[in-house]
Amino acid sequence: MTNIPETGRTPRVQIRLVVIQILVLSLLGTLGGRLWYLQIREGAAYQKEASGNHVQQVVEPAVRGSILDARGVPLADNETRLVVSASRTDLLKQADDGKAVLTKLSGVLGLKPADVIQKVRLCDAKTPQPCWNGSPYQPIPITDEATAKQALQIRERAEDFPGITAEPEAVRRYAAPGDANAAQVLGYLSPVTDDEITQAKDSDSPYLRSDQVGRSGLEREYDKELRGKAGVTRYEVDNLGRVIGKANSDAAQPGSNLVTSIDARVQRVAEYQLDKAMKTARQQFDKITGENYKADSGAVVVMEAKTGRIVAMASAPTYDPNVWVGGISAKDYKQLTGKNSDYPLLNRAIQGQSAPGSTFKVVSTAAAVEAGYKWDGGYPCTSSYSVGGQVFKNFEGENFGPISLGRALEVSCDTVFYGLADSQWKKDGGINPKKGEPKDYFYKAAHQFGLGKTTGVDLPNEVTGRIPDRKWKQETWEANKAYWCKTGKKGGTYVQQIAYENCLEGNKMREGDSINYSIGQGDTLVTPIQEAMIYGALANGGTEYVPTIGKAIVSADGKTVTEIKPKVKAKLPISAATHKGIDKALAGVVTSGTAAWKFQGWPQDKIELHAKTGTAEVYGKQTTSWFATYTKDYTVVMTIAQAGTGSGASGEAVRNIYNAMYGVQADGSIDKKKAMLPTPQTSLPKVRADGTIASPKITADPAKELEKQQEKATEGGVTPADDTQQPAIAPSPSTTNSNTRRRPRRRGSRRMLT
Amino acid sequence: MTGNSFSVSGYGPDRAGWTRVFARDSLARRLDWPILLSAIGLSLIGSLLVFSATRNRTEINQGDQYYFLIRHLMNTGIGIALMIAVIWLGHRTLRVVVPFLYGASVFGILLVLTPLGSTVNGAHSWIVLGGGFSLQPSEFVKITIILGMAMILAARVDAGDKPHPDHRTVLQALGLASVPMMIVMLMPDLGSVMVMVIIVLGVLLASGAPNRWIFGLLGAGVLGAIAVWQLHFLDEYQIARFAAFANPSLDPAGVGYNTNQARIAIGSGGLTGEGLFHGSQTTGQFVPEQQTDFVFTVAGEELGFVGAGLILVLLGVVLWRACRIARDSTELYGTIVAAGIVAWFAFQAFENVGMTLGIMPVTGLPLPFVSYGGTSMFAVWLAVGLLQSIRVQRPMSA
After folding, report:
1. Average pLDDT over residues B202-207
2. Å from B384 to nearest chain A CA?
3. ipTM of the assembly?
4. What architecture does CATH give domain A357-518?
């Protein structure tokens, strides 16, 4: 064969061999190029992916900080409970998506199977509560009230309960010290949602899947501080999740504790007194509607006048915040938020708004002085004030003759303010104001007092209230005129008639609007916290403070204490002389004005009390009662919807709150030993070396104890009302001392044009 | 080992001892050393990579971290011995026994279809011998197809009768190749069938068969692929692998897992890699079949672009030299055999590395010399023996 020359192979084969060679090399070249692309160009991205691949994080949740009262009594803290949780991932691996296991589990726990299954389904647009709002990869708590026996049953028969765990866990506890509930102030927690995790991903406090997030109240406002930082232990794992090494780990940082200015005892007294006042009001007959008062909601704010710190804040109706712990049940959720609920989640102290009634007259008084009216002007307090054939009356037609602004405030004479507001309205040009800015002193004053905007209290979702000035009227008219013009009908029902009038000139400031406005009726809306801020400023000489509940943030180890300092919000737009006049007039309200009948025997010489009553009208409902008071140190504002007059509904309750704080006894003497808080708590609770905070003991129910003491002291005497013993307490005050109320707004009398 | 055993009769003057081995015209001097050294280099790199991939896998290494390392080296040694045997025998000698070898290999794959065969990773292509040994007869079939076709196609050309194989010869050769291919198809071992199709193409190209056969075969291949797809001839897992290749993000936890993890492993290696035994993907065993089909990912992760590139370069050297041997062979028979081996190695390397890089679908093909696996190792070293034998037997005048 060697005789065949090499050149014997045909060119065809030679060419093809070259083709093969080129093909082979280009294939290798392709591999090399791809290798370069993956390793050099995209290498960094793959390195990142690889490290995510083999590192597993074990999250150790941080212990949430406590919320403490001013003396260190915990209002919200943590306790260890046996939590039974279900892993969705494991349940879904089962043939029936875990239904059988959950049914069995419900038997052990004594729950309804349907409830348990509802708890583990995921929330989406179509799924109503209860459902799981958190991450689907996180164990879903089914109950945190498992008994040791139930937990044992589950753990010993682990093979019967795949995907179910029973572990002791720290869960939130709203301890209600001394029965102080403070539900709306404290707020509540619920699991973090996927959206929140995404949003907070690159912030300085990212969420972990297992996090609980404050949803309302202080829990939400101070969430970042309270939450702390979860610890993460990173393990290097293999493809089956077996640990093959330990990477860097971060220890959990417990959340800081929040010291508030709330005093649990005063809080309890405030809550108790508010509740009692509402119950009492429901026993009262309302002559106007011909049925008992409904007194369906109310709020009370106790504030330090010189700092704006909140000592107590109660909102009724209320609920037990512990229902949120460990996931809320369908029934509970419906009770809290359903259409037929009374919306107990609302903090009516900052989210409830209604017309201020006569408590607004301090603003009108300041406005009148600003507009140039003399303090001692001798303004006619007639029984009625007529405008264009329309009669605006003093409630029950009282007539005091010509009086000063101070006296008008003291006796709450509506007609004096009607006259002042009406003349200002005319000066500003009436229904068609002159070119240029109308002065609008009465509206300006309200803005200067801080109404129509939030106070900035350290609670979420505060509402602004409303000043029905020209701007608001214009905006509202533009937004609603189409509807008004469609539904309005001349001479129709009251609503149709109002709509008709609004359609025609709802954008204009009408004479009746200004008249109504001057005594806090009509479209004006204020919140209890705004009232507290205004009356607090009157108490301290004219400085408005931003209301605050948080007083200090104490780190878990106790080493860092960050005080939250009082913030000045504004100065009241009144001179010292005016302030003095108002101050004196409001003291007069207690001694000889509209609230005097409720404060007989009050030691006014020792604790000078100032007050203003108010009764606001709400169309189609009973009147809202307002009672705003202050001493040199405190402001107490109470309001109850559908409960009649300010002094009638709240006088007793507010007096009892002061009694408790100052130790005033039934006979008017002061027992300093029994005083809960005769002066505001200035010092912070003591932080021990280990970071824990000393907390004084608190009695089971300070409010009831106080009541018993008072009863004992006045055995057989004139006892303060107790709704169970004396259901119908002195319903009607004499006409001379308590008229804050206007003629009910009916038959269109509110409006100038009919 | 004496020089005698290396000397091939009729070539060069007879000398004694090692001097003879390395004498000017000696066999050792005429060996293709680049191929030999590259193949040894690849096998040694392979042994390190296999070691790295298996030293912590107690569930397969019987508690001995050197289990796979030792076996890989052993396989390499046996492979080299087989190569030496082939060189010693000479491919012309072997040409005589090709019909017998062909018959034996076809018998081997037929055995797989009997209850003696066992299934590994969805491919029913193994014969377990016991004692941890098993054979994959389809690896040997790749060689016998090359040899058999070369014998038929080159017979009349080498005899000087014709410049090119005629249609009848081509038909005979195709018939010879199609029998084992159909059997392998039944296993089913799609990867091996693909390799054999490429081998057939390479062999036909190198034989100088008429163009219409080349294009006809290509066309038939395309039609066949369509038919296979349409008639649902493929198993579920094969379709799934292909779908995952087309779109690896399709099911990252399921079918796409292999390709995804392989790409992460290689990509994270960067320029110089994380260092041998330090790859997190390898240590964490995220890539399945890492000592066999996905061994290239170990190189990519732990040795980086430099190390993985070296493997490609060494493969390139082997293929380049093999091409040269094909072109330099004095007889068409040698040319065809060398070209067949080039087609085999090139496709298998491209497919294996390509699938780890995500540019080819996943099939169970080993990377020549590098992947762990006895039969495959023996087969590639036998092929190296054939290449060497073709080279040493060319006339000195060239």
Report:
1. 93
2. 17
3. 0.89
4. 3-Layer(aba) Sandwich (3.40)
Which of the residues B281, B297, B394 would you substitute to probe the A interface, choosing the one with the greatest number of A C-beta atoms within 10 Å? B281
In this structure, the number of other CB atoms found within 10 A of the CB of residue A691 comes to 15
pTM: 0.62
**Segment A549-583, tens digit of pLDDT:** 999 999 988 888 999 999 999 999 999 999 999 99
Q: Is A246 on the interface with B (CB under 8 A)?
A: no
Spacing of C-alpha A104 from chain mean position: 41
Q: Inter-axis angle of helices B332-356 and B138-158, to 10 degrees? A: 150
pLDDT in tens, A445-474: 999 999 999 999 999 999 999 999 988 998
Q: Which of B270, B312, B320 shows the shortest C-beta gap to A39?
A: B270
What is the CATH number assigned to the segment(s) A56-259? 3.90.1310.10
Is A357-518 in the same CATH topology as A56-259? no
Nearest to A141 by CA among A174, A166, A104: A166
Please state which CATH number belongs to domain A264-319+523-713. Answer: 3.40.710.10
Chain B positions touching A21 (Cβ under 8 A) are: 320, 323, 327, 342
Q: Write out residues 79-138 of B within 8 Å (CB-CB) of A.
A: 92
CB neighbour list of residue B369: distance below 8 Å, 6 or more residues apart: B39, B42, B43, B46, B76, B377, B380
Structure token digits, residue B377:
């190792």
What are the sequence ranges of the domains in chain A? 6-41, 56-259, 264-319+523-713, 357-518
Mark yes or no for CB contact A20/B164 under 8 Å.
no
Q: Do A12 and B263 touch (CB under 8 A)?
A: no
How many Cα atoms within 13 Å fall on the side-chain side of residue A216?
16
Considering only the beta carbons, identify the residue of B330, B342, B357 that sits closest to A31: B357
Give Cβ neighbours of residue A247 (< 8 Å, ≥ 6 apart).
A55, A234, A235, A236
Q: Please report residues of A whose CB lies closer than 8 A to that of B283.
A: 54, 238, 244
